[in-house]
Amino acid sequence: MSPLDRLAKRPGSLMIIGGAEDRTDDKEVLRTFIELAGGRDAPLAIVTAASEIPDKVWGMYREALSDLGVTALSHVRIESRQAAENEALAQQLQAAGGIFLTGGDQQRLLERIGGTRAGAAIRAAYSGHGACVAGTSAGASGLCTHMITEGQADGAPEIDGARLADGLGLVSRVVVDQHFSQRHRINRLLGIVAQHPFLLGAGIDEDTALVVHGDRSIEVLGNGSVTIVDCRCVQSNIAALSAGEVPRLLNVCLHLLPSGSRFTADMQGPLADFIHFLLDSTVEP
Amino acid sequence: MSPLDRLAKRPGSLMIIGGAEDRTDDKEVLRTFIELAGGRDAPLAIVTAASEIPDKVWGMYREALSDLGVTALSHVRIESRQAAENEALAQQLQAAGGIFLTGGDQQRLLERIGGTRAGAAIRAAYSGHGACVAGTSAGASGLCTHMITEGQADGAPEIDGARLADGLGLVSRVVVDQHFSQRHRINRLLGIVAQHPFLLGAGIDEDTALVVHGDRSIEVLGNGSVTIVDCRCVQSNIAALSAGEVPRLLNVCLHLLPSGSRFTADMQGPLADFIHFLLDSTVEP
């Protein structure tokens, strides 16, 4: 049985990584990616479309992953929408055991692959072919239906201080921020979620992954934590405010999930909806 | 009727200031202090006990407040517990229309005046004599029954990452952190409140004051916001963890109160307890 046959028999997994994952030391996040992709001999695709320095980024991951013994690693370099429509490239992505979306700029990532064959292939690899799709930093932001594109992290959660754009659509009703504690992005995420309370916010620390396993469990691993921001019950004065004003927000609900946290689909309580959104998002073709 | 007679006829007010209040420009926070203290001719006492450079700090406030036209400003310099037991000094504090506790180090402040006649005089000025008691930065931290003394702000909210000590006792069930957004102290405050959920956390931004008015209303004024952290309904694994570990916290309740927010004693809803704690703390002699 080839690695691909094995993969096709199980549901895919997702790794939402907060950037700056360890690439030289223990490499827990990258080791997990290899494992979830089907092991060292599984075909792995490193997608550098978010980056302006794709060769440098590819070199970094080639070295880090090769050190971990992978045998079928390839660089998927996508620098235009035309390239993203290439059929052979789409087939390569769809056949991968693991797809890793590197950092860079999430707006560039979406400008290049949003709504293209490459984007559809990544979704299909996750939803239908049992692949592990991982995104780090900009790659993590781009995974969901909505993503944060702009916005200062350091200020107050001002109205329109950050903006939403469309992402790759692997998870709906969740919006991701990355480098979360390190870049002090709680106010940026709070501002976005307060204005868009249909979404739950997930702030991922560096060298930390929120993992959606194929067996329908959820795990936080790596060195930091995941912070969930839920504004569905918030009482605010947002409707009366203009851009740049700071809203009054009562009843923001916050969850902190440190590395080692695990949850299953049947979990009840305050995290139930978040888990449900991660596990049961309908990924359209 | 002298300014003091007027003051004695109304309940005191409290200003909890997040540090770095404007002293050169619009000076909204300091202007409010003068107003609540009874106006330009009210006796104002600047207490520099928290500081290692009391003369420099006094000079700064003398200049800023003199520019605003005050006529009866005095420097209350307390550099030892012995000085804090001085009867004349206690009377001077108790007779003040406004007492301003400057920044420095809250532990030094409490080492010098906690449990002394000076400390009791500050409480009496607030609870019985209608004075405005203001504290900024370390002075703000020292106002409540409990205060944060140590703890890195930047890391995860680790168990025992910050510590509680005793404060001056003007407000109970609230613990204050200052320079809040500017120094990224949400995790420090979250860690403290998660471990001590009997307390509500109030994180005050720089150049921002949480004001408890004598008419039993509450106001946020200045340039930033006040963030309230409420862990009373949190589900956590804290009991099973050791120092340095990061707890799992579900259901943290957060409120953001920007400058301009006003609340009255009869307000219902998620802020009701916070308002009640601020207004109805029993200040012991």
Please provide a written account of the structure:
Two copies of one chain form a homodimer. Chain A is built from ten helices and 15 strands. Chain A is α/β, with parallel strands linked by helices. Chain A has one domain (3-280): Rossmann fold. In chain A, strands 3-2-4-5-1-10-11-15 form an eight-stranded mixed beta sheet, with helices on both faces. In chain A, strands 8-9-12-14-13 form a five-stranded mixed beta sheet. In chain A, a hairpin with a 4-residue loop joins strand 10 (208-212) and strand 11. The two termini of chain A are 27 Å apart. The A-B interface holds A 154-157, 181, 184, 186-187, 190, 205, 224-225, 235, 245-259, 261, 269-271 and B 154-157, 181, 184, 186-187, 190, 205, 224-225, 235, 245-259, 261, 269-271.
